[in-house]
Amino acid sequence: MADQEIPKLTVFLTGASGKVGRVLAPALRDAYQLRTLRRRPATDDPEALLGDLQDRGRLRSQMEGAQVVVHLAAVSDEAAFAEEITPANIVGVYNVLQAAQEAGVRRVVFASSCHTFQFRRSQQVIEADGPYRPETLYGASKVFGEVLGRYYHEMFGMEFIAVRIGWLLPYEDPELRTSAFKRGIWLSPRDAVALFRLAIERPGIGYATVFATSKTAREVVSLRAASEVLGYQPEDGVLELDGPEREA
Fold first, then answer.
1. Residue 58 carries which DSSP code?
2. Of 123, 199, 202, 121, nearest to 212 (Cα)?
3. 58 in Cβ contact with 97 (< 8 Å)
4. Residue among 32, 94, 138, 232 flagged as catalytic
5. Is 234 in contact with 186 (CB distance < 8 Å)?
6. What residues form DSSP beta bridges with 71?
């Protein structure tokens, strides 16, 4: 009897048109049955589901049958808190988690941020289990998302993994050779895909928070939790960029 093909995971992805989403979506589409959520139709993603983080009922129906939700959609720290950050990063993450719980989603992978800590002021390597010290209101909103994920895990058994993304930049970005700040928390496109795939697939995780960077000249945030919990080992490093030009 021939081996039966193992069905692909169904993954629901928010924020597919954002900076991180544009890197992840093509790779996740190859690996999973991917559903992407967009607020507007897009020619490069004609099968995307249309919706908004404020419509919890629509989110719930769109998540039906998905095993994993990858929640990337958010607004940045440049935005006004009451007018933009609160609807997207506070109410929006609640709607996503509540809709996922109601739809029977097993795991949520949440795009958090290094901005949950004051990493630019720290003289020590920051561990993933250290106390929160957000340096922006955006960072504070990501703390809320992580704590809310803990609540849904403890109360409903939902698996939740917060991926604290560093500075995702393409290999050829000139600031990777000039900015010590960005070099300190750089996350390469290849490493981003690898880490998120581990967060989607790795079994036996109830709740976890991990930092997400590539190899850096000086360790600013610790990758220990990402290695121990997810088995993540970055392939790219900033020192490699200082040598001969590589292909993007």
1. H
2. 199
3. no
4. 138
5. no
6. 14, 110
Question: What is 10-241's CATH superfamily?
Answer: NAD(P)-binding Rossmann-like Domain (3.40.50.720)
Query: Coil, strand, or helix at residue 74?
Result: coil
Mean pLDDT in consecutive groups of 10 residues from the start of the chain, 248 residues: 71 95 96 92 81 95 98 90 96 98 98 89 84 93 98 98 96 89 93 98 97 91 97 93 53
Give the pLDDT of residue 3: 56
Find residue 163's DSSP bridge partners.
111, 210
Tokens linked to 98: 């509540």
Distance from C-alpha of 223 to C-alpha of 211, rounded to nearest angstrom = 6
Tokens linked to 142? 């990501």
d(CA 61, CA 54): 14
Phi, psi (deg, nearest 5) at residue 21 = -60, -35
* Both structure tokens of 40: 């507007």
- The b/e string for 147-158 (b: 16+ C-beta within 10 A; e otherwise) is ebbeebbeeeeb
Active site residue 138: yes
Residue extents of the structural domains in the chain: 10-241
Alpha helices in the chain (DSSP H): 19-31, 56-63, 92-103, 137-156, 180-184, 189-201, 224-225, 238-241
DSSP string, 160-185: EEEEEE-EE--TT-GGGGT-HHHHHT
Predicted TM-score (pTM) of the model is 0.93
Contact at 8 Å (CB) between 115 and 221? no
